[in-house]
Every structure is written in structure tokens, then in C-alpha cells.
Amino acid sequence: MISARGARRWALGHPWVFRSDVVVPAPIDAGAVDVVDQRERPLGTALWSAASEISVRFVSRDPGLVLDRAWWEARLRSAVDRRSPILDAANHGKPDSNTNSDTNACRLVHGEGDGLPSLVVDRFDRWLVVQLLSAGLEAHRAVILEALQAVVPTDGILARNDASVRAREGLPRVIEPLVGTVPEGIEVREHGVRYLAAPHGGQKTGAFLDQREARVLVGTLARGRALDVFSYHGSFALHLARRAESVTAVDVSAAAIARAAENAALNGLTNIRGVEADAFEFLRAEEAAGARYDTIVLDPPAFAKNRGAIAGALRGYKEINLRAMRLLAPGGMLYTASCSYHVRKPEFLAMLEEAAADSGRRVILRGITGQPLDHPEVLTVPETGYLKGAVLEIQD
Questions:
Q1: Percent of the chain with pLDDT over 90
Q2: CB of 291 within 8 A of CB of 329?
Q3: What is the number of helices (H) and of strands (E) in the chain?
Q4: Active-site residues: which are they?
Q5: Is the confidence at residue 89, as pLDDT, over 70?
Q6: Which entry of 178, 230, 235, 368 is 20 to 30 Å from 212 by CA?
Q7: Which CATH number fits domain 69-186: 3.90.940.20, 3.90.1150.10, 3.30.750.80, 3.40.50.300?
């Protein structure tokens, strides 16, 4: 039983109910439960996590649902079918070169964005990487794996259950094979570029699939001397290098720079130079030296991990964008992004406006980017949307 406030939240389209709005707890630690309001009116079926701050995650407005294999298969198939313009599971991932589907990797399930709260499934060629991020979902692990294999033929499934949110659910943080074996490195094809995903030890589930479309866009804009800051494994740099004369890829991690070099070699690209450096220090030094670039990409990690970090994050975002604007030659292009959920799109754009004003340059907004098709953002569930970006042109 949940409070009127919790019931209203669900009525308005958000599947989460917090512990403070649970009036009568479920009699189990974790699993599927029927939910009613304080008048005992049925509200639907949800995943219950007794130890979590997010105690209730609704999956349907239908009460009394049995979350059996048939239900999971239907919900998973719906999510996979939604990705057919990118990667058609029915033809085993064979791309259509005439569409925006020239890739063998994409997200198949984006949690609440696909009506499957706390479940993430990413596909890398013939293998799957999954995250089960709540106790309520974990209780259904066996049937989910059966359903997933029925919907998506695969050579192996790896669990990247090392996310910190699992600790708040009272769950262990582990990386473990669930079905078959998954290679340490998997070659990903992405619109003519190849790179190695690292499902066992890389960021997220092995690669940043959410920036796929932005990388392709940036590749069409690249020219002259290019700079990729926070480059990680060089995914943006690879697309830049196909049109730019030279690319400098900057990352604080020596291991990331080494992997970026491997990816460059995989594509036969010799015009990418890796630099191991702190991004802020590098940008300051380049500005002081009077350096000029024609194309710059800023794709930093999340600066704001919580609401309390928003002010500091915005200062950080402003500094790197201000310096990038000053480093660009006239006519230069900047692609800048934020993956901080707590920094919303209006705040992000306001920060860019302030940076442009302080730069002394005339900065043109050429476009705003969001999440691709395989990372659906539900308007009534803002937590499903976190990625935003902008394409800027320095006109003078």
C-alpha cells in the first residue's frame, strides 16, 4: 500500500515510489507485488525492493500480473523491435547500409525508458552485457535470462553488476558471466569506424553507445586541426580523423590513451596523437600558448553526481567551454556535451551562453543533440534522459 502522493506520482507517469510513500510494506524482501492505494484501490504491478530508497518500481497499471517468462519475453521483444532502424534482431544484426543502422552495437533495453525499470541490456556484436540494478529485478534474474536468450540469440551474456546503485539495494557489486563467455575485447563497427569495446573493465558496459550519432555528426563537420578532449578510447577522435588533417586526443588515463592508439591502428589512421594530461590543465596551457584548432570535441564525464554538485559542475563546464571557444579559429566548430543528469538542458544552454559572452567571440548555435533511438527518454520520467549536447560555430 502506498500513500496518495505515491499514487499521484504513478498516475502522472513516473514508475518510482519512494520508501517514504510506502504505507504498508510488501511481505517479501524483493520481487513482483500488487500495489494498492490507501483506499485499497488497485494501482498495478511493480517490482519491490525492501532495502531500497526507491521501494516500488511499477511495470504495469494492470494489477495481478504474473511476471513469468511470457511476460518478460513480450516486454523485451517490444524493446528490441523498437531498435529495428538501428539493429534488426530478426536478421541477426545485419546492417542496412542505406540507413542509420551501420553498426553492430546498440542498447537493447534502457531501463525505465523501455518499461523495464532498472534493467540495462547492451549488445556488442554477438554478445550481450546486462545490468540488473535493483533487488526487485534481481529476484527475476533466471527468467529474465531465459526470456532474453529467446528474444536475442547470443554467444554469451556478461553481467556488469558493479554499479554503485546495487550497494544501495543491498546487492553485491560483481562482474560475472551469466551465459557462455564474453571476450575481453569486442570489435564494434560504427559507420565505417571500428573500435574495441571492453565489456569486462571499460566504462559503462564497455563503450559509450549513447554518443554514437553524435560521433557520426562530428565526423561530417571535422576539418583542419582537431582536438578531442576527454577522449577515453578515442571514439570521437576516430571519426574526426577521417576528415581532419590531424587530431589531438587528450585523456588523463594512460591506459585510455593506449587503447585509443590501438583503435587508431585498427582503422589504419596515422593522424591521431594521444596526449596524457588533465583536460583543464591542457586547455589552459593551450590557450596560454595561443594555440588554434578548427574542430574541438568536449565530451567530459558527469561533473554532477548529485544535486549538491550542480553549481561546481556548471563552473567546470563553463571553464572548459570558454577555453575551447577561445582556442577555435574563425569558422571553427565545437561539439560540446554533458552526461550529468542533474544538469538539465536549460542550465546547460545557459552555461554555454555565459561562456560565449565571456569568450569575446561571436558564437553561433548550429544544433542541439540528445539521446539516440536506443536510449529513449520518457518525458514523464526525467531520469531516463541525461545526455545533451550542442554544435557551436565560432564566426569571428
A1: 95
A2: no
A3: 11, 18
A4: 339
A5: no
A6: 178
A7: 3.30.750.80
Q: Could you count the other beta carbons within 10 Å of the beta carbon of residue 66?
A: 8
Write down the domain spans for the chain.
Answer: 4-60, 69-186, 208-394
Asked whether the predicted pLDDT for residue 215 surpasses 60, the reply is yes
pLDDT digits (tens, 9 = 90+) for 264-278: 999 999 999 999 999
pLDDT at position 46 is: 98
List, for residues 44-69, the tens digit of each pLDDT value: 999 999 999 999 999 999 999 999 99
CA distances in angstroms from 109 to 12, 21, 56, 142, 335, listed in the order given: 23, 28, 20, 17, 27
CATH code given to domain 208-394: 3.40.50.150
CA dist., res. 117 & res. 16, Å (int): 9
CATH class of 4-60: mainly beta
Which pLDDT score, from 0 to 100, does residue 232 have? 96
Q: Rounded distance, CA 258 to CA 233, Å?
A: 8
Task: Specify whether the CB–CB gap between 46 and 33 falls below 8 A.
Answer: yes
Report yes or no: 86 and 101 within 8 Å, Cβ to Cβ.
yes
| Alpha-carbon dihedral sign for residues 40, 46, 51, 53 | negative
Q: What is the DSSP string of 191-237?
A: TTEEEEE-TTTSSTTSS-GGGHHHHHHHHHH--SEEEEES-TTTHHH
**Is residue 280 classed exposed, middle or buried when 0-12, 13-18 and 19+ CB atoms within 10 A define those classes?**
middle
Over residues 228-237, the pLDDT tens digits come to: 999 999 999 9
Tally the C-alpha atoms within 13 A of residue 167's C-alpha that lie toward its C-beta: 4
The residue length of the chain stands at 396
Reading the block at residue 380, the C-alpha cell is 514523464
Query: How far apart are alpha carbons 396 and 248 in whole angstroms?
Result: 23
Nearest CA to 301 out of 318, 315, 317, 319 is that of 317
What's the predicted TM-score (pTM) here?
0.93
**Residues near 222 by beta carbon (within 8 Å), at least 6 away in sequence:** 239, 240, 241, 242, 243, 244, 295, 333
